[in-house]
Amino acid sequence: MIYLQILGALILLAASIHYGIQFARHKSLYPFMPFKYNFRRRRITFKKTLELLDQRGVKTMIETGTSRKGLAGSRSDGAATIVFGEWAQQHGAHLHSVDISEAAIEGSREEVERQELQDSVTLHLGDSVSFLQQFEAQVDFLYLDSYDYSRTDLEIQGLSQEHHLKEFKAIEDRLHEQTIVLIDDCGLPGGGKGKTLIEYMRANGWRVIIDAYQVLLLRS
């Protein structure tokens, strides 16, 4: 009998360790977002960004590169349109999300409507640089995630990095001392989407708050 008790205890211990490890690997934004959504390597930067949005009373938000898969893409592309759209709805802010792909816009629109965020999120079909050049209001939060990057194609890497720098320069004069900037897909071979832009920003009075898969920056 004592052996069966010991065996049972060992099984329970093994199960506890297994599920504890699984829980630790599950990078949730709960309670802000339902626990089932795993944001993986973006969790640390999303969580800090949400804190800063609260602290700074953000109202005008821009995202380049919309979340074409909605919340189904939380593990892959981050589902940022829904994450920041949800925050906007809860805080009386507004998110503008721009993408040059009609299919991406339609995929994002389906999820925005499913989550009933259409009053807080406006989706814009078109070139992001042109959109930013024509945007007139001051921007409190800028999230850059357009022009798909490549792990292996050096030409695409360079074009993506150049595009993100162009985006920033197109809106730079409408950013203020309290503006928050988040750049996606930086922790990739070749420096990721933000390599050239981050160098430019650092040389122009911005400082890195978190340097991870995403990079979060504020003015010095």
Set down the secondary structure blueprint.
Blueprint: H1 2-25, H2 43-56, E1 60-64, H3 80-91, E2 94-99, H4 102-114, E3 121-125, H5 128-134, E4 139-144, H6 154-171, E5 175-183, H7 195-202, E6 206-211, E7 215-219
Parallel strand pairs: 1-2, 1-4, 2-3, 4-5
Antiparallel strand pairs: 5-7, 6-7
Helix pairs in contact: 5-6, 6-7
- Just name the CATH architecture: 3-Layer(aba) Sandwich
- At the first level of CATH, the class is Alpha Beta
User: Main β-sheet, in a few words?
Assistant: 7 strands, mixed
Shape: globular
Strand arrangement, largest sheet?
3-2-1-4-5-7-6
Number of domains: 1
Head-to-tail CA distance between termini: 67 Å
What fraction of residues sit in β-strands? Answer: 15-25%
Number of helices: 7
What report would you give on this structure?
This protein has helices spanning 2-25, 43-56, 80-91, 102-114, 128-134, 154-171, 195-202; strands spanning 60-64, 94-99, 121-125, 139-144, 175-183, 206-211, 215-219. Helix 5 runs parallel beside helix 6 (154-171) and helix 6 (154-171) packs parallel to helix 7. Residues 7-24 have low confidence and may be disordered. The protein has a 7-stranded mixed beta sheet with strand order 3-2-1-4-5-7-6, with helices on both faces. It has one domain (29-219): 3-Layer(aba) Sandwich (Rossmann fold). The chain has 220 residues and is an alpha/beta fold. The relative contact order is 0.13. It has 7 helices and 7 strands; from the N terminus they run ααβαβαβαβαβαββ.
